[in-house]
Structure formats: C-alpha cells, structure tokens
Amino acid sequence: MGGDKAPGEIVAGAAQAARELGVHVVLVGRAADIGDSQGLEVIEAGEVIAMDEDPAQGVRRKKDSSLVRAAEAVRDGRASAMVSAGNTGATMASALLRMGRLPGVIRPAIATPIPRPGSHPSLLIDAGANAECTPAMLLQFAQMGAVYSSARYGVGQPSVALLSIGEEPTKGTPLVKEAHQAIAGAPGLRFLGNVEGRDLLPGAADVIVTDGFTGNVALKALEGALRFFMSTLGEVLGRDDATRAAAGALAPHLAPLAAEFDPDNTGGAMLLGVDGVCVISHGSSSARAVVSAVAVAHELATGGLVGRLADALSPAVA
Amino acid sequence: MGGDKAPGEIVAGAAQAARELGVHVVLVGRAADIGDSQGLEVIEAGEVIAMDEDPAQGVRRKKDSSLVRAAEAVRDGRASAMVSAGNTGATMASALLRMGRLPGVIRPAIATPIPRPGSHPSLLIDAGANAECTPAMLLQFAQMGAVYSSARYGVGQPSVALLSIGEEPTKGTPLVKEAHQAIAGAPGLRFLGNVEGRDLLPGAADVIVTDGFTGNVALKALEGALRFFMSTLGEVLGRDDATRAAAGALAPHLAPLAAEFDPDNTGGAMLLGVDGVCVISHGSSSARAVVSAVAVAHELATGGLVGRLADALSPAVA
User: Fold this and answer.
1) Which residue spans within chain A are E strands per DSSP?
2) What is the CATH architecture assignment of A115-266?
3) A74-119: per-residue pLDDT in tens?
4) Which fold has domain B114-267?
5) What does the pLDDT look like over B86-123, one tens digit per residue?
6) What is the pTM of this model?
7) How much is the ipTM here?
8) Which of A217, A219, A257 sits opposite B163 (nearest CB)?
9) Gap from A249 CA to chain B (nearest CA, Å)
C-alpha cells in the first residue's frame, strides 16, 4: 500500500517479479484496494500508514497496517523478506519492532547504493535511520556494510571508509575521531581511513560510513545535484534545432548513464541489523523499481545475508 | 604565499585587480619569492604556512608567516581586508587571533556561495569552520548570513533556512531541533524552516544554515558531483565524430553555465564574525580567482560589512 504509485505500480511490479524471476511474491494490504492481485496471494491488512504520517505513532497505533503485517509475515516465516516503497521511517520501525534486532546490534541502519559507473555501487551507511550515533554504532555500520557489499555485489574484501571533513584521523567531530580509532582497530575490515564529501561520487570505497544525519544530507545533496544537472542539460538540449540535433547524437551515449543512475534500477536501500531482510524502495517506485527490489530481496534471503551479518557482528559482542 | 599556484598567479591576480578595479592592493609574503611585485607594495613576511600544515600549530609557531602578517595588517589599519588562497584553517586562525571576534560572536563561520543560475547565489554557512556547534552558534550564523547576503547581493530581506533531514521542526538532531526553535524565535529573520540536502542545488533559500561538519560534507558532495558530471559529459562529447559535432553545437550554451559554476568566478568564501573582512579563495586559485576575491573584499570593506554585522548581532547579546 506504500509509495506514491500504490497500489497500481506495486501490484504490477510484484506480479512481474513473480513471472519473470520465479519468486513467490505475497502482497500485504487491503484486498479491496489491491483489486486484481494477478494471481498473487494476499495477506489482508486493514490499515495504511500514510507517506507523511509520523512513523513511531503510525506503527504504534496501526497494528493492522500493511507495513506492520508485512514485518510480522517475515517474523512468522510466512515470508523470507519484505519490500516496501512506503513511509521509510515506518518501514524501519515496523521491521525493528516485529522482526527485532540481530544479537548485539545497537541500532539498525540504512545502506543505500550510490552508482559507480563501470563498477559495482558504493554503499553509504547510515543513509538516515539514526540522526544520532555513537562510535560503537559507526563501527557496526562498517562491519554490516562490508558483509552487505560482499553479499550483494560479490566483493571479496570490501574497502571501508569513514566520511569526514579531512583525511587526517584528527579531523572531524569527536564522534568521527573516536569512530576512526574504533574502525581502524577492528579486525577483518579493510579500512581506508577518512574520505570527504567529494569522494562520494564516484565512491572512493565500497562502503562509506557516517551517521544518519550527515548521510541523509549528503545523499540528498547528490540526488538534488543529479536532478539539477539532468534538468539543466535537458533544457539546453531542447533550445533550438542545432541543440536538438545534438541531443539526437548524444542520446545513445547518455541513455545508459541515465539508466545507471535511475533509482528504479538500483534495487533499493537495505535496512541492516534487523532479524530479517527488509528492502526499502524509493517513494515514487514504478513497477520496474519493485521488480528490482524483489530481485535483491530474493537474492539476499536465499544467500543468507542475515546469518552472515550475525556471524560478522558476534565477535564484536563477545 | 598561499594556494597551489602561489606566488605566480596570486601576484598576477593582485596586479590585475589593482589595474582593473583601481583597488590599492598590498602583497604580504617573502619579497624574494614574489620577485617582480608589478609595482605593488609588499609587506615582508619571512615564513609560510604550508597548505597541508596543521593550522593551529602553524599560526602559533610562525608568527612571521604571510597569513599572520596579513591579518595583522588588517588589525593595524594598514589594510581594509585580507584575501587568502592558502591553508583555510590557518587563514581562519590568523584572522581570529589577530583581528579578534566581533563583540558577542561565539565563533566565526565560513559563508560559501552556491551558484543559483538566473539569480544571486545561496550562502551555505558554516561551510567548515566549526565541526561542533551549539544552537546559539547556528542562530548567529543565520543572523550573520542574512546580513552578508544583503551586503553582498543586495537582497532586501534574505530568506533563511536550516539544513535538516526533514521539513518538520521535530526532525533531525537535538542541535537542529533546538536551533530551529532559536532561529524561529529570533526577530528580524525571514525564516523558511528546515530544508533538506536536495534543496542545496539550486538553493531553496538565500542563506542555508548548518554546522561546519555537515556543511563541509554537503558542499564537497556538491563539488564532487559537479566535477563528476562535467568529466562524464566531457568524455561522452569526445567519443566520436557525431558527439564531437554535438559538442560544437552545445558549446555556446554550456559555456555560460560552466562559467557560473567555475569557483574562480564566485569571489570566494567569507569568514564572518571576525573584526575585519577576510575572503578565503580556493586552494587552486588562478589570477582570475584573485581578481574576483579582491573585488568582493573591496566592495565589502567599503560597504561597511563588519559594522553591519556588529549591529545585527548586538541585540542578541543584550
């Protein structure tokens, strides 16, 4: 029921994913609103948490919402993963409250892929789940991000960097300085040290760690810059006959780049640290975005992501 | 003596500014390194703080450095403003220690222009002077930013926004939430509320307030994205005969945009809150960047920026 184009595009994408990927997809929501489920099983949920609703309140009050019921389906083993294009905060809260945290995890975090042309994406973690963080949380983000980069993109030994305002370990806030020491001292991580905002696009490391406030601001700054650049270029290309001819010549070269940066193709962000797979697709997800997200969710559920995360974190707890 | 192209480009830009703008420019540095000063007065300074040197140590140890001597020249009335393309941290420290703070200013901050095609730039403040901030500091950044936007771009009643991770006043860190209340309650500010990272380019307000850590990360993320787009587009335009022909058709349309985003043209960032005018030009400043920065410094010194800042801040102190 979530996302600006729900339920139409969501149902269409779910059906397409079931057909094309052979994944068993279950819809969660109001059967009456869903209409033709295209042969997919439906778990009835009578309430909807709106996109702009307060996440904590929504999850507390609407126990029969599609988000809460979807997280319960994963908890109860009726589903192996959940995918949502709905209210991000409410998706996180539902997953956290119903699936629970993995042992030792202080707080779950959102890992968002940043496209890197010619290579697999970088992962920015935390992209907005936790406005306030501790050094121990940032260390866990590094550990979870490395496992996820490996599970999702097959990276052997993912490189990890810490987002700061200078390369020197002495630069930044007390949080960043302490996190630097913690990550540098943790076994099993390939830590490159600090990187700066300019190292986000293209990503200077497989995993870039930051608190959820900075991560959210930086990610949205990149998204805004991308949108600005695309619309400016589009405006220039449409100015006159000569520029329209140029647009025709450039189209075959620009299209693959645009596709690489199209959020409908990235498969969505991942909530790491809960006891289940939870993929967060963007709010204006099309059917194609849902197919991408279902593909990622299926791959990670069958690949045992959650078990690998639990294994990676347990030494830090012991 | 500062900047990657010093002293050659710096001296050339200073001489050009003197010629073209009729500004009395004084060079500060090692006369032997400067060589032909092109008729400009030189204040001898025997030491240089390197671009990668620790700012606090550099300023403490090198009392005869060009940065410290330049700030002293402003303090002593031998100059009305200083311009530096050198070590940013050392520039701030020199200005702070030698010029001192304006009465009531908790900490000076850097205001950096973000180009806004078709309009005057937005100002991001603090772009990196203070990694740690308090709500009272963010309020002062809002007040100083509004005065500066007005003085620099002639904006009658500049709009002010606070950078956060959601538009609601309840979103963000405790710092942001408290700063929101403080700025909303301050008289004389046209406060639009919170904006997000995607509202930085193009800027959704004349002044966008944030702490120096977030501001530095966001600004460099934008710079990195811009560089990435430009180099990607340049690569596409050079691929074959057809794209090179397209490049020819687009060049007259893209050139003005590129010029608008060229940091050599923005006039540099401003350190607000010290008792003097201090313009910080970027590290790879060309002669043209120096001319822009000198023009801005001259205009603000003659326009009484420092007095207007002092006036705007005094009610907050009383």
Assistant:
1) 26-29, 41-44, 81-84, 109-114, 122-125, 159-163, 190-195, 207-209, 269-272, 277-280
2) 3-Layer(aba) Sandwich (3.40)
3) 999 999 999 999 999 999 999 999 999 999 999 999 999 999 988 9
4) Isopropylmalate Dehydrogenase (3.40.718)
5) 999 999 999 999 999 999 999 999 999 999 988 999 99
6) 0.95
7) 0.95
8) A217
9) 6
